[in-house]
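>> received
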Amino acid sequence: MEPEKKKNIVLVKMIGYIKLLRMHHYLKNVLILLPLICAHLLTSWEHWKLLIPGFFAFCALSSAIYIFNDIKDKDKDKNHPRKCHRPIASGAVSLVEAIIIIVLLVGLGVFLNFLTKANYVSWIILGVYLALNVGYSLGLKNIPILDVIILASGFFVRTFYGAVIINVAVSNWMYLTVVMLSFYLGLGKRRNELEQLKENDTRDVLKAYNHMFLDKFMYVSLALGIVFYSLWCVDPVTVEMLNNRLIWTIPFAVALAMRYSLNVEGHSDGDPIEVIFHDKILLVGGGAFLIAFMLLVYL
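>> returned
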């Protein structure tokens, strides 16, 4: 085989492996850092040393879950206009290679969690996360409501995992904010998948939903999420630990929610990461919100 051709084959393989990991979804794992921010410990290197391996442990395990899901859905993905380009469905990565990568990723996740020096609760959290998502791939995603609950649980589990690693308490208002916004994102994803049902009929659970139901509860969840975030901002404990200026981040949060909803109401497939990365204004606005939040807390 010619060296140039061999090099191209290796390059295609490497690109397939990288796509398989879905690294852009690692943005969700930033929630692991939320307890650090809420506890006013952002400048504590001792806590960062625990959170960094925890962050990458979740990255490894979440990639393993995505690969497992791709293996289960490979036949359906082949008939999907967009998902047919996924590495396993397209044949860029073989089934054996995918299984080997899953084993390596799970092993890496276990090793990194050891480095967090967290107690047994962190292992329970990782076990629950894996069990829920494996169950989701094996068929729970076809059960209406339960599928959205599992999608939303991933965001809550990440936040709880971060709190356990650094051994800090997180306000119940903040947990409720994460849960309700997670429902909003999950329902929004299903809503837009339903919009595209005529073009693509590969997700069985969509047959149980209707547009009015998803639209209604999506915005109920968003409204509750904003209310709970507002209550966290004015909670006496938050005011004492951080400051009383966080109330000014609420209009900013509402504006971001409106921008996100505008995208979801459009032609997006509803996937939160896809929505964020395909809207530069939303991406910049989210970054500006974080900067403003940090300035109000730490200056």
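>> The chain has two domains: 1-170, 171-299.
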